[in-house]
Design goal:
Layout (H helix, E strand, L loop, with lengths): L1 H7 L3 H23 L5 H16 L6 H4 L6 H9 L5 H6 L2 H7 L5 H33 L1
Helix pairs in contact: 2-3, 7-8
């Protein structure tokens, strides 16, 4: 926010408020577009856009930002240490995370691995449900 605020000669609060309003508006557009089949392309595009606005971050760290309690700084540390996906975190050993990320306590590393595994299982379950629904629609 600092660089944008400085460039446009605005306070950081104004810029942050603008981001929040844009994310809210994009969410409204997403719900509106779900009401009409002709807006189907937006169903795939807008969720990613909304996440980027909500987290104010790049696509590179979005998967890591889904973990509860992870903020941008920690997500950047994890990505720089080579943990770019939930899968890589779920497969990691807490001791390896501790060594790779500066000032990461063992308990926090254990929680990160646990939450990553849980989120990965939830995503897999959602995909199974979607696949079952598609198969039902075919039959």
């Amino acid at each position: 926010f600092y660089d944008v605020a400085k460039f446009w000669d605005q306070s950081r609060g104004v810029i942050q408020n603008l981001y929040s309003q844009a994310a809210s508006f994009a969410t409204s557009i997403l719900y509106f577009s779900k009401s009409y089949d002709e807006f189907w392309p937006y169903h795939q595009l807008l969720p990613i856009f909304i996440q980027r606005l909500t987290f104010c971050t790049s696509l590179e760290i979005l998967p890591i930002m889904e973990i509860p309690g992870i903020k941008r700084g920690r997500a950047l540390q994890l990505v720089r240490a080579g943990y770019r996906t939930l899968r890589s975190l779920a497969k990691a050993q807490p001791n390896d995370l501790m060594k790779a990320v500066l000032n990461l306590p063992l308990r926090t590393a254990q929680i990160l691995v646990k939450h990553s595994k849980r989120l990965l299982c939830e995503q897999a379950e959602d995909l199974r449900d979607q696949a079952a629904e598609l198969v039902e629609n075919i039959e």
